[in-house]
Design brief:
Helix content is 35%, strand content 9%. The radius of gyration is 16 Å and the shape is globular. It has one domain (3-89). It has a two-stranded antiparallel sheet with strand order 1-2. The longest helix has 15 residues, at 73-87. By secondary structure, it is an alpha+beta fold. The protein binds zinc ion. Zinc ion is lined by residues 30, 32-33, 35, 71-72, 74-75.
Length: 107
């Protein structure tokens, strides 16, 4: 799915409704670490609804409740970073080990 299309997706009414359903089903609890996600105004991480199978590769599962789950922002960012690294071929340094990429990713 192209970047523009995905932007539109996240703004769509249908997604907003689906997202709310997922938040209610999971009770605003991060399915990874169990943190309660009620947003910054409560001094808690913001909830994010994650597509377990990525939207990019599985657009037909965009609104599939079983493919959606609540993650807190830290867990979601971690997951996104891991996905990105997983896709990219690791660069091998002269010592034969992959070059550390994490340090370049802003937290
Ligand atoms: Zn979490």
């Amino acid at each position: 799915m192209a970047e523009k299309v995905r932007e539109g997706f996240y703004l769509s009414k249908r997604w907003k409704e689906t997202r709310l359903k997922v938040l209610r089903r999971d009770r605003y609890i991060c399915q990874q670490c169990g943190a309660k996600c009620l947003g910054k105004s409560k001094g808690l991480p913001a909830p994010q609804v994650d597509h377990e199978l990525e939207l990019k590769t599985h657009p037909h599962l965009a609104y599939e409740m079983s493919n959606l789950r609540v993650l807190c922002k830290p867990c979601h960012s971690k997951r996104t970073i891991l996905d990105t690294i997983g896709r990219a071929k690791p660069e091998i340094g002269i010592d034969g080990f992959p070059v550390e990429e994490l340090q370049h990713i802003p937290s």
